[in-house]
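Practice problem: MdtP family multidrug efflux transporter outer membrane subunit
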Amino acid sequence: MTHSSRMTIRRMVVAVALPAFAACAMIHHDTPPAAMIAPEQIRLADDVHLAGEGWPSARWWSQYHDVQLDALIDLALAHAPTLAIANAHVSQARAQVELIRAVSGLQMSARAEADRERVSGHGFLSAYANQDPAIGAYGPWYWTGLVGVEAHYDIDIWGKQRDLVRAAIGAQNAQRAEAAQAELEVSSDVAWLYYTIQIADATLDLLERLRDESAFEVETREARHARGLESLTQTQQARSQQLAVDQQIAQTREQIVHVREALRALAGVGADALPEIRPVPLPAPSVSMPSSLSYELLARRPDLQAMRWLVQASLDRVDAAKAEFYPSFDITAFFGFNALRMRDLFLHSAQQINLIPGLSLPIFDSGRLNANLHGARTASDTLIDQYNQAVLDAVRDVAQSASQIDDLDHRVQLQRARIDALRFASDSAQAGYQTGLADRLAATQAEEPVTQARIALVELSGDELEAGIVLIRNLGGGYRDDALPGSAAHDAKPEPDR
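Answer key — structure tokens:
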């Protein structure tokens, strides 16, 4: 082939290729991504504070110094079905990453075929339909064979497969954060159920004391009525109060049974595997809150980290959708043996080598690619909006929990002052009974308000414990993702600014 002939062919190729590139599918419309929440919005109001400062530790429940609680949470973290489900989701996401990575790599396979066919006398191989030994024709029936190795590789020039891999990794990281969130929920739920039982036990002790006081009043009223000193009305009123206390005792005992069953189901163990829960004194609330939240809250809340990874994955999918508009290149190769007769299959002359570079260019797709890009962008913007709202909700939850704890602490102090005042009146009545200035019934009646006030104090202490556990959960427990925005570890990852 002469030089002029080669130049003519090149001009023809360019003439054909340029219109094809010019006629490829175009991005008709795309919008910038939705804005992420600003750091100054991740803060508490100036009037929200607690006495102590700091984030929860990894094993935050150890601050209560209760070996029973430690054992129950360890048991639940080892056997809870919700954690098994969360870990299964992590494994599934990991498998998806491996699958997408495998698709983007070199694909090789062995191939072997044997075919019994009759050659058509009017087809491309019609010469082999007759007997012609000179050309190797012994037709019309033949055993044909093919054996070899074929390979295929997509050249990821525009990063489509790389973006899909990153999106899958983002989804995997989101599942890991959700697994951490599940652990936080299990540990906090176990702690609250455990203290619900402890609060019920403490309340039950006080109710039984109150019942003894009511029973003594009933006996005294009955004796006075028998001697004609009091009417039956006063006796029935005392009996009504005793029955009300009996109802409270029955409800409290039923609550202990129900909560214990809820704890057993949460831990994922049988009835015999749940250890005995012995009554212990309620711990003094020990809660604290950091002086500032900002990006640190994002790193310590596993649910926010999960959403952030999903946002990152959605942005990678947008990039992959954009790459669909560009030409794709691939190479297919084959090396092996191909023969019209099986006895010639492994002859040197039967060797076959194929090397096929490929180019695929979208020209007209009825708007499919643009619809796909629009869908990916809309899904990403929706996730960003949901993430922003979740961050604001997280700040609100922390503020409300801290404010509730501050209010409950004040109410507990007032209740203790009220108990002291009632105790003074009870002690005075008891002293009068000891000196003969008052009867025993008056001393007993003066003790009943003290017992009722102590029951109310136990309930307030329980509310304060619950609020402390909720605050710990709202702060993320002991979770922390070191890939903070602005840190070196985070800067190595792509930011959602596309």
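Discussion: The chain has ten helices and six strands. Students who identified this feature from the tokens alone can consider the problem solved.
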